[in-house]
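Homework help board

Subject: predicted structure for assignment chain

Our instructor gave us this sequence and asked us to write out the predicted structure in token form, then describe one feature. I got the tokens but I'm not sure how to describe them. Can anyone check?
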Amino acid sequence: MSSTTTNCGGLGKQQRRRLAAFDFDHTIVSQNTDTVVRDMLPNELVQSSALNELMENDCWTEYMAEVFRLLHAQQVPESRIRDTIRCIPEVPGFVRLIKHLHKKLQFDLIIISDSNSIFIDEWLRAHNLSDCFNAIFTNPAEFDAQGQLLVRPYHQQTDCKLSASNLCKGRVLEHFVIEQDLRFNIRYDHVFYVGDGNNDICPVLRQRACDFACARQGFAMEKHLIKNRNKLKLRANLIIWRSGFELLDQMCSLPQLQGPPPPVSQDAQSLSLNVDANCKAEMARRASAIAAPVDRQQ
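My token output:
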């Protein structure tokens, strides 16, 4: 699961909260973290037949595993990879947006991304944002003893045809909301999902009429939703944004966010510790029990 998530505890009094879920690449950061690191390779390796074959067969996880192997073979050190990730610019205004939602509007914030835990954690620490997020759901990663970056799939799924086999963002979002309700008695009055790509379609199709699908202008998510909105039966309110500044302005002008933020109980303030192994296993078991297949939306 994520590097940061909520702690197990009693239910207590019901809490009414707001949630913002973010994609990472081309949403929080202005580039694709995978391709930025890939481009550290010599061009002849990037264009090699072995990599091109993996790309053509739509095997992105295997493609990046080979990229990381080649980087290690080229003796690219871990420190250089981390430095490269830290230097990726934000999408303008997103550091401000995240801090404002967290500190001023007291949103719960999560990331659901097909990047990996090393890249996301490194970038968030460099921009002093790590403490803003309740949870980060992405592909687990680590550098081995020899300095090679190894990435594992977040999960394996075949039910959702809108998503890659290693990550269904819609399932992750649904399970997080359900677990917050079942474990901590936290109910989200409004859920904002912020993304840019085709793999961000699934989560917004699972949103309610009181929620908000926030799509980056000019990118695949917006184009797909605009073209197929009626066919997809999108229930959420659609917000189109170009920058974090613009998205924050639009969110702050919503009638649903007027007035003071919902109070945070002492119990809620304490839900910032890592879950233990038993809690993780129970969350996985219950998540599997409530999962439902998702049909492809034409």
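Reply (TA_rk): Your tokens look well-formed. For the description, you could write something like this. The radius of gyration is 19 Å. That's the kind of observation they're looking for.
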